[in-house]
């Protein structure tokens, strides 16, 4: 009698790990898209006030940290300088 093939139990975590890596990659792409949209909107929308731009950036930060809890340092190192530079250039902030 032929024994049906089954996936060994030791392979399940690899599959779960692969799925979590894929999920994290998907979230990273989603966050990058969101951040780039905010950067582009602030840079190109001439009707945007400094308060509105600041609120958009704050909301983007909240969303990013909701997607990646506990990653404040990563946000501060990667995204904060970009937003600060944009705000200085766009609104002539010194």
Explain this structure.
The chain is an all-alpha fold and about 90 residues long. α1 runs antiparallel to α2. It has one domain. The chain starts with 11 loop residues before the first helix and ends with a helix. It is built from 4 helices and no strands. The mean pLDDT is about 90.
Structural class: mainly alpha
If helices are DSSP runs of H or I spanning 4 or more residues, what is the number of helices? 4
Topology, number of strands:
0
**Helix percent band:** over 70%
- Average pLDDT confidence is 88
- In total, how many domains does the architecture comprise? 1
Overall 3D form: elongated
- Biggest beta-sheet profile: none
Query: What are the secondary-structure elements, in order, as H or E?
Result: HHHH
Brief characterization of the structure:
This protein has one domain (20-91). The chain is built from 4 helices and no strands.
